[in-house]
Amino acid sequence: MHDLINALILGIIEGITEFLPISSTGHLLIAQHWLGTQSELFNVGIQAGAILAVTLIYRKRLWQLLTGFREPANRDYGLKLATAFGITAVLGLIASKLGLSLPDTVQPVAWALVLGALVMFWAEHKTELDAPETAITWKVAIAVGLAQVLAAVFPGTSRSAATIFAAMLLGTRNRGAATEFAFLVGIPTMYAASAYAFLKQFDSGAQENWSAFAVGFLASTVTAFIAVTWLLKYIQTHRFTGFAWYRIALGIALLALVPSGT
């Protein structure tokens, strides 16, 4: 029962934080510091639960892209999504083969939260100065792919924050357009990461608590659906600066309260 409660808590944390620009990996690392470390498969699995929620939210847009691929606008958008995903997949595999992995200490997360907040302030400032632009250029697509790799290597960066603000800084000044592209790229990325983690798990022969996995997956799916639905409405009338202030407050609190090296 204790394992199931922990899985529920971690699933809820993942669902809330995966698509808010506040770093799900960072929050999970902090939570597991007290609740106990989970397997890589569990962590990726609850991320897949959050991605399932986004798939459901964007199901009409995804269907439009699939069925309307012959239309130039849909084809162009789809190819840019594929390019961003391809960059992430190739560089992600290279990083994995090189043995690069997320550190398991809190201090790097704290610094990444603070530094990421400063980038968010900068991106919002540029958005205010420039004309609102909704187009996704090839430069934006490449930057989003690279940003996903950056977020995978540096905990606390936040995949959603890195991709959204990479798009905004490289020319997509409209928050809604940048967010949609970032979230759509995340769908194949996290499904692929989940499949890769499953294969590694079975190859290693390691045991997994599938009941806890199921609880975490379901909790993540439900809470992510609620969180993303709220976020998409929120950014229509608000800037991301509120999240930046939250990152700074959390980062400073962690630096002050958590001993160095833990």
Give a structural overview.
There is one protein chain. This protein is mostly helical. Helix content is 78%, strand content 0%. α5 packs parallel to α7. The two termini are 27 Å apart.
Topology:
Elements: H1 2-17, H2 24-35, H3 40-57, H4 59-67, H5 72-97, H6 106-129, H7 138-153, H8 159-169, H9 175-204, H10 210-234, H11 241-257
Helix pairs in contact: 1-2, 1-3, 1-10, 2-6, 3-9, 3-10, 5-7, 5-9, 6-8, 6-11, 7-8, 8-9
Rounded to an integer, what's the Rg over CA atoms?
Answer: 18 Å
Residue runs with pLDDT of under 50 for 5 or more positions: none
Largest sheet: none
* General shape: globular
Q: Provide the succession of SSEs.
A: HHHHHHHHHHH
Compute the number of strand runs: 0
Average residue-wise pLDDT: 88
List the keywords.
262 residues; globular; mainly alpha; 11 helices
Brief write-up:
With 262 residues, the protein is mainly α. The protein is built from eleven helices and no strands. The two termini are 27 Å apart.
